[in-house]
Specification:
about 20% strand; alpha+beta; 4 helices
Length: about 150
């Protein structure tokens, strides 16, 4: 898996996720879904790293391997997925978000689905002014409020 972009002008938007696993309980349930996103060309993994916060507060990297204990290497397909974009400071920052005994995956990925649009916008000299993510709970609250307004009218 090549992680170095061939042409920076053709890159899709780059996002990151830090997902915690309280008590370091990793089931591996989401791994086939992540692999599917990569296989379908929707995303490209640039970096995938696991960190764990020890009881004493130290933060250490965790080897990619058999996360759910079923004898299969759950993330073998991502072994070596390292663009070098995530550094020790990034992993320390992610680890600082954890409670002692918890683990997290730090995932840096390219949104391949948006690459053609992003490239076209760059060619047009367009600039993104804002972006973000709407938390699911906020969306549910707004939809509930709209529904309630509809039933009281």
């Amino acid at each position: 898996m090549s992680n170095q972009p061939q042409d920076l002008d053709e890159l899709g938007p780059i996002d990151y996720l830090v997902i915690s696993f309280p008590g370091s309980r990793l089931t591996g349930e989401g791994m086939p879904l992540l692999v599917d996103l990569v296989d379908r060309g929707i995303i490209r993994i640039l970096d995938l790293t696991f960190v764990r916060k020890g009881a004493d507060g130290t933060i250490a990297g965790v080897e990619i391997g058999d996360l759910d204990g079923d004898g299969k290497l759950d993330l073998a397909v991502f072994e070596g997925a390292s663009s070098g974009l995530l550094g020790d400071a990034d992993l320390a920052e992610a680890g600082a978000l954890l409670d002692p005994g918890d683990s997290a995956v730090v995932l840096l990925y390219e949104n391949r689905w948006a690459a053609p649009l992003a490239a076209a916008l760059r060619r047009a000299d367009a600039r993104m002014l804002a972006g973000g993510r709407v938390p699911l709970q906020d969306l549910v609250e707004v939809l509930d409020a709209i529904d309630e307004l509809g039933t009281t009218s």
